[in-house]
Amino acid sequence: MSNLFDRLKKEQEDALKQKEVASAEMPAWLARLEGLMADIRRWLEPGTTGGLITIQPKSFPLQEELLGSYQAEGLVLGFGSKRLVEVQPIAAMIMGAKGRVELKPSGCRSRMGVVLLFRGEQWIVWPDDKHARTKPETLPALDEKIFLHLLKEMV
To answer: Cα–Cα distance between 111 and 97 in angstroms, integer?
Structure first.
């Protein structure tokens, strides 16, 4: 009988350790998001000063098993009168990366969004093909040129 209790106690301790690790990761995740949003604002500055693009902050409610419920800051990018792209945080705790953000065009179901993953020390662009067998280390790092190209394709 004690084997059952020992196993349950170990599972409980492991779960507590995982939760502690996840909680410690939260400030880093929020800092990564803040850095990404700052980069996006900087990259789009020529369009915002010319009145071509609007940038509005938006808080997204997230729910993760280890982190619980929390709010994460994203953006809504406006292009013209009706074209919007949301920069939406999805999760901090995902397999193979330390965060996921999606670029989602609003109001058009036929267009695919773009997935950004934080791997290593950078944001990378994940292929839109869900069955892609691309090695993560070969994926492009997100930079101004790539970001502007992605937006051009979405709007």
So the answer is: 25
DSSP state at residue 71: E
Q: How many domains does the chain have?
A: 1
pLDDT digits (tens, 9 = 90+) for 25-40: 889 999 999 999 999 9
**Per-residue pLDDT tens digits for 87-123:** 999 999 888 888 999 999 886 554 567 889 998 889 9
The pTM of the full predicted model, rounded to 2 decimals, is 0.82
Please state, as a whole number, how many other Cβ atoms lie within 10 Å of the Cβ of residue 113: 15
- Structure tokens belonging to residue 82: 């009706």
Supply angle C-alpha 103, 152, 51, rounded to 5: 95
Domain that holds residue 133: 2-154
Q: Please choose, from the candidates 102, 103, 153, 123, the residue with its C-alpha nearest in 3D space to the C-alpha of residue 39.
A: 123
Cα within 13 Å of Cα(88), Cβ side: 15
